[in-house]
Specification:
This protein is an alpha/beta fold. It contains eight helices and 14 strands.
Length: 233
Amino acid sequence: MSKGPSVPAWTVLLVEDEIELANEIKAELERNGYLVHPVSIAEVADIARTNGAAMLILDRMLYGVDSLRTLQDLRRKGIKIPVLVISVLSSVDEIAQGLRAGANDYLAKPFYMVELVARVEALLRRLGDVRTTRLSVDDLEVDLIEQTAFRGGKKIDLLPRELKLLEYFLRHAGQVVTREMLLKDLWQHDPGIETNVVDAHISNLRRKIDDHGLPSRIANMRGIGYMLRARAP
């Protein structure tokens, strides 16, 4: 198993006010190796400018508001994040209006999830990005297709939640990851999950990926959270 370079976080910002559809989109994209951040229309400009997301999926109609104005504002501010607009407005004129406002692609509702994923992949490929199926940092690696993890080329037996944790840390290698981030992104603010549950999962993950007697690959950042070391200690 080759080590290879670390890869960018394949983060997709999602602006969709239909909760059931938003959850379905998030689940399907994450099954295909993306990290999805649902955001509000009010905060999308600031987040798109600062967090280095791969692309934005933007629902055109939000509580009766045409979000193309927000898209036009993004482009006026020089924010070049790729945008896929999804909308119940599906006439040729409406699609043309969306593309002229700055959308890179336009998908009419209702749609099949397999088509949404294909549009996301095609959009990123068209804009020159190379889709990765593996995440690796130093000798730690996750195969996003097979959903398997390796350390130094040897398979690590991880539970599904532990695998998601490792994937999250690989995507944020060298960055501080707070418990609040994990509760939001991996547990979706489940009211039944407390920070001690997060700590317990991380403890189990450490036990499986660390070399006995050496400092943990996932370092404690006292009072803040955790950080995956970019290189083995």
